[in-house]
């Protein structure tokens, strides 16, 4: 066998600029509203939480934004990440499709999250901030931010969703290894946490609750701490475009161009990271690559949510963002892909969906784990359960190509490895998992409590 299956780039090919989709979206993003006045928020409203450089990036209409040298220096630890052709998976599926994957699990944190954590820590440090607060669900974001804060000699205060804190002690320990302080959420260290515990002392937490706690600590710190979010925001999605920009070059080396690009969607950042540079080509060069998101059937923000203004957190402290939402009161089922259990979705992804620039599959937990095992056995990498949603989407595409007798070129984002998720695999292999469809009446109920915007 002399076929090339791995397409590497030299370090000089680490992108020097991030791509900003806001310059090219056919219809601009809807404004973000102040939770009290319902007027569009300005920089002053966001300044208690974010440094000015990131507030600027959040609303920038510039197509390309320079990546600071200090950030590229740290990217060198794992970037450019490899792009591989999954020949063994193709063979196992007996498909004429060509399947490629971009592997972000080689980062020190094990997922794509360090791409933005590094940038966010850098800009905060530049503006004299010495600590960041954040939330983490499955633990990937908390791990990445702990590492990034450590690189820039900053404090890191993490609110970890209680169920994950209990199920994933090694995730907590890795954050602590990098010097972070980690608290199970809901906690009694914040007003938001205390209010939840008063209503439900046994609450296992949610990302929305943990966000409320982290935001509260930053907002009340008198400027000592700012807050960092691992997904959803425009600047976060933009930082992730290094994934797609590298992939464009690597696909060129492979001598192919994808017919479809696939990624899982929680808040939307890894999906945006791999797809936006291809969307740029669709919008400006007449390419027609399909962009396919995959969300869990148990947390179906895009496919079953409502496009409306909602809070990003549970306590209603964040600005109001127009998004496909299951309602900020939505308490997701204890799904094993913790990183995909968010009630909403990034504004950029919601507009892509609303403007029909992308497609979406909702895939159940059992199909996802089955895809994960097939991938692990053929390609040798145990994927994060979140990433396995992307694999399941890619496998559906490869089987559809087989049915149609097409040599479809598929690229998917393998956004993280699953080495800290073996309890989920253990549950699957032990026959303890099942599928779960979120009941419509519960979605209807959560949507009833959406804020009324006049
Ligand atoms: C955080 C995470 C996700 C979900 O977040 P996105 O912003 O949608 O990417 C998915 N996969 C992995 C491995 C993650 O760490």
Can you give a write-up of this model?
The chain has a seven-stranded mixed sheet with strand order 1-4-5-15-10-11-14, with helices on both faces. The chain has a four-stranded parallel sheet with strand order 8-7-6-9, sandwiched between helices. It has a two-stranded antiparallel ribbon with strand order 2-3. The radius of gyration is 20 Å and the shape is globular. Helices cover 41% and strands 16% of the residues. The chain folds into two domains: 6-14 and 78-110 and 235-447, Rossmann fold (3-Layer(aba) Sandwich); 42-67 and 113-233, Rossmann fold (3-Layer(aba) Sandwich), CATH 3.40.50. With 454 residues, it is an alpha/beta fold. Helix 5 (114-126) packs across helix 6. It binds pyridoxal-5'-phosphate (PLP). Pyridoxal-5'-phosphate is lined by residues 111, 113, 140-141, 231, 264-271, 339-340, 384, 386-387, 415-416.
Write down the domain tally: 2
Rg result: 20 Å
Largest sheet: 7 strands, mixed
Ligand inventory reads: pyridoxal-5'-phosphate
* Spans where pLDDT lies below 50 across 5 or more residues: none
Mean pLDDT: 95
Strand content: 15-25%
The structure class reads alpha/beta
Overall, the morphology is globular
**Helix amount, in percent?**
40-55%
Q: Which second-level CATH architecture of the largest domain applies?
A: 3-Layer(aba) Sandwich
Our measurement of the CA-to-CA distance between the termini, rounded to an integer number of angstroms, reads: 65 Å
Quaternary state of this entry equals single chain
CATH class of the largest domain: Alpha Beta
């Amino acid at each position: 066998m002399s076929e090339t299956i791995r397409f590497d780039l030299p370090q000089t090919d680490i992108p020097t600029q991030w791509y900003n989709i806001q310059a090219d979206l056919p219809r601009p993003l809807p404004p973000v509203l102040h939770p009290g006045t319902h007027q569009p928020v300005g920089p002053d409203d966001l300044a208690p939480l974010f440094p000015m450089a990131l507030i600027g990036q959040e609303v920038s209409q510039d197509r390309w934004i320079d990546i600071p040298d200090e950030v590229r220096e740290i990217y060198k630890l794992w970037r450019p990440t490899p792009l591989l052709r999954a020949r063994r998976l193709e063979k196992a599926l007996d498909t004429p499709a060509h399947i490629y994957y971009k592997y972000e699990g080689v980062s020190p944190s094990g997922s794509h999250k360090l791409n933005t954590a590094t940038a966010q820590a850098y800009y905060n440090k530049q503006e004299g901030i010495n600590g960041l607060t954040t939330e983490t669900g499955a633990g990937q974001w908390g791990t990445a931010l702990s590492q990034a804060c450590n690189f820039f000699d900053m404090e890191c205060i993490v609110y970890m969703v209680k169920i994950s804190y209990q199920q994933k002690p090694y995730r907590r320990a890795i954050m602590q290894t990098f010097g972070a302080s980690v608290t199970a959420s809901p906690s009694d260290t914040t007003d938001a946490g205390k209010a939840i515990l008063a209503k439900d002392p046994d609450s296992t937490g949610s990302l929305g609750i943990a966000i409320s706690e982290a935001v509260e600590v930053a907002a009340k710190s008198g400027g000592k701490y700012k807050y960092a979010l691992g997904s959803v925001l425009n600047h976060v999605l933009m930082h992730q475009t290094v994934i797609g920009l590298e992939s464009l070059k690597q696909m060129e080396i492979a001598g192919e161009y994808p017919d479809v690009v696939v990624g899982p969607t929680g808040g939307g950042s890894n999906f945006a990271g791999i797809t936006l540079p291809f969307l740029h080509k669709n919008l400006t060069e007449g390419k027609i690559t399909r962009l396919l998101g995959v969300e869990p059937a148990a947390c179906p923000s895009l496919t079953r949510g409502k496009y409306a203004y909602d809070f990003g957190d549970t306590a209603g402290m964040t600005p109001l963002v127009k998004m496909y939402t299951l309602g900020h009161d939505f308490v997701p089922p204890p799904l094993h892909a913790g990183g995909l259990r968010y009630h909403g979705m990034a504004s950029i992804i919601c507009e892509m969906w609303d403007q029909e620039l992308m497609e979406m599959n909702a895939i159940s937990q059992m199909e996802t784990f089955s895809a994960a095992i097939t991938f692990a056995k053929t390609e040798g990498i145990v994927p994060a359960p979140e990433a396995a949603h992307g694999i399941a989407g890619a496998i559906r595409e490869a089987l559809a190509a087989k049915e149609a007798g097409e040599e479809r070129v598929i690229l998917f984002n393998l956004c993280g490895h699953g080495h800290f998720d073996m309890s989920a695999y253990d549950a699957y292999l032990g026959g303890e998992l099942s599928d779960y469809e979120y009941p419509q009446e519960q979605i209807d109920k959560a949507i009833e409590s959406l804020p009324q915007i006049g």
